[in-house]
């Protein structure tokens, strides 16, 4: 279960063969900031079914909220450019 409208808890990512599960089951990504976020319960349950899948809390991978904010800022720039070009 991907993280959606749930109460505040530390999100988890799933890692396999050195790569993270991508958003919307779209394959794998190298950067944790591009990975899908899961509940702890789902991530640990999923990882327990396979020796090569790890459930990792993002707090183990991201160096605080400033790192996330930098990513959010870049995404907002991309969104604004796409809107300005009429790409919705």
Topology:
Layout: E1 12-16, E2 19-21, E3 28-29, H1 40-48, E4 53-57, H2 65-84
Widest sheet: strand ordering = 3-2-1-4
Biggest pleated-sheet summary: 4 strands, antiparallel
Our measurement of the CA-to-CA distance between the termini, rounded to an integer number of angstroms, reads: 27 Å
Rg is 15 Å
Question: How much of the residues is beta strand, in percent?
Answer: 15-25%
Count every helix, treating DSSP H or I runs of 4 or more residues as helices: 2
| Average pLDDT taken over every residue | 87
The overall strand count is: 4
Q: Choose one word for the global shape.
A: elongated
Helical percent range? 25-40%
Protein structure class: alpha+beta
Uncertain segments: none
Task: Please tell me about this protein's structure.
By secondary structure, the chain is an alpha+beta fold. The protein has one domain (12-84). It has two helices and four strands. Strands 3-2-1-4 form a four-stranded antiparallel sheet. It starts with 11 loop residues before the first strand and ends with a helix. The model has no long low-confidence stretch (mean pLDDT 87).
